[in-house]
Write a structure and sequence with these properties.
Blueprint (H helix, E strand, L loop, with lengths): L1 H17 L14 H19 L6 H12 L9 H10 L7 H29 L3 E2 L2 E2 L1 H4 L3 H24 L5 H25 L7 H26 L9
InterPro entries: FPS1-like, Isoprenoid_synthase_dom_sf, Polyprenyl_synt
Cofactor: Mg(2+)
Keywords: Magnesium, Metal-binding, Transferase
Length: 237
């Protein structure tokens, strides 16, 4: 059943991406969004600040960057992490500790999307994201510093995974899934930019653009939920 759910999710997200549709509606089962935001602001952001506490003034910049940019899209974007976990995990596995760790994974995934958004806004010369001014337009140091913020926060995400999940089954797979977001998004966005200069751009390249820019990075969320419950057989190498 878990394998079928994973395949169906990937297929659904692929159809959304290739049809250029946007999903804005929060899932009806996402009823504890307040707990997610509590975890983001009371656990994840303070932990990220702690990781750079030796650098004068930098923890506050990290806090402001993450708080302003995360989530960069819509509340329900990363609910698939919790949804997959709650659907597949046995009841005895769904302890408050594991549910909290699930929310940490969701926050970190939202952060990784937000950091990809910072780079995307720079490339597209965007001014607003989700109704707010982009981070580069309000942060000290402007666009140049914002780009490095995105790299730094992606590094902090990996440190957070080490802090909270290094002893869990599937830790190495989590590292792969979180690195996929900036990696595949970069490939897709590069292909997208090249499309502007190449009149002979093929449908095949366009499919690779969509696959890397949207589908591959988005599908890591559902996979993350499965890894948290230690279901590895449904994740293809």
């Amino acid at each position: 059943m878990a394998a079928r759910a994973s395949v169906n999710l990937r297929g659904f997200l692929a159809r959304v991406a290739q049809n250029k549709e946007n999903v804005h509606v929060r899932h009806k089962l996402d009823t504890e969004i307040d707990k997610y935001y509590k975890t983001l602001h009371n656990v994840v952001i303070p932990d990220c600040m702690d990781l750079v506490k030796e650098i004068p003034g930098y923890p506050q910049r990290v806090k402001e960057c993450i708080s302003h940019t995360t989530p960069s899209y819509y509340d329900g974007w990363n609910f698939s992490i919790e949804l997959m976990y709650k659907t597949v995990a046995d009841e005895h596995h769904q302890t408050e500790k594991n549910l909290e760790k699930c929310r940490i994974l969701r926050a970190l995934k939202d952060m990784s999307y937000a950091m990809a958004g910072i780079v995307d806004d720079y490339a597209d010369k965007g001014e607003y994201r989700h109704g707010k001014k982009v981070w580069a337009s309000i942060c000290e140091g402007g666009q140049e510093a914002a780009i490095y913020d995105s790299v730094a926060v992606n590094y902090l995400i990996l440190l957070m995974l080490h802090r909270h999940f290094r002893n869990d089954p599937g830790y190495s797979r989590l590292l792969e899934l979180y690195n996929m977001v900036p990696g595949t998004a970069a490939i897709g966005n590069t292909l997208d930019i090249l499309d502007r200069y190449n009149s002979n751009y093929s449908d095949d390249i366009w499919k690779h653009t969509v696959q890397n820019k949207a589908m591959n990075s988005i599908c890591t969320a559902g996979g993350t939920g499965l890894v948290h419950v230690s279901v590895f057989t449904v994740l293809q190498d």
